[in-house]
Amino acid sequence: MPLWRRIRQDILDRIAAGILKPGDKLPTTKELAAQYDTSGLTVRKAIEVLTEAGVLEGRQGVGVFVADPSGRNS
């Protein structure tokens, strides 16, 4: 399994376990790359896929957050 898919699954698992909740900010790409011992490109791929699926949302200049499934995230 490609590393970006493992990162994606780990983020999904953390959300399912309640470790990451709607509105929580994810660490920076650089921090996640260090955590998973990979490149920023690999981390960005996982985040991109989760953003397209509506699981995460990027806020320009602010960061990446766990999306509120009810759509009421501020």
TrEMBL record:
Domain HTH gntR-type: 1-69
UniProt entry keywords in alphabetical sequence: DNA-binding, Transcription, Transcription regulation
A Pfam family annotated for this UniProt entry: GntR
Source domain of life: Bacteria
Record InterPro entries: Bact_HTH_transcr_reg, Tscrpt_reg_HTH_GntR, WH-like_DNA-bd_sf, WH_DNA-bd_sf
Stated name of the protein: GntR family transcriptional regulator
Source organism phylogeny: Bacteria, Bacillati, Actinomycetota, Actinomycetes, Micromonosporales
